[in-house]
Write a structure and sequence with these properties.
single chain; mainly alpha; 2 helices; elongated
């Protein structure tokens, strides 16, 4: 299975908060390319994309909150260091 997120098994993976921000940026870019299309289908796609951006924003806020919590438990140890929470594997 492909892994996207950074972990001990995938130290070069994405940080969740960075992935969510990148996804938001790409959805906004797509929206800008179809903004001038007034067909009902294009309008619906834009509405869906706007909702997706909002949801990704909510997810991003939660991910940032998790980062703050983890930071309060000690300094970052990197993907290959010992975890700040959960069992050591």
């Amino acid at each position: 299975m492909a892994k996207l997120l950074m972990s001990k098994d995938n130290p070069k993976g994405w940080k969740l908060e960075d992935l969510l921000t990148t996804l938001q940026d790409e959805v906004v870019e797509r929206m800008s390319r179809i903004r001038g299309d007034n067909r009902p289908e294009a309008r619906r796609v834009l509405e869906n994309s706007a909702e997706i951006i909002t949801m990704l924003g909510d997810c991003s806020l939660r991910a940032q909150d998790s980062v703050r919590i983890l930071d309060s438990l000690g300094s970052k140890r990197g993907a290959t260091g010992s975890p700040r929470i959960g069992p050591e594997t």
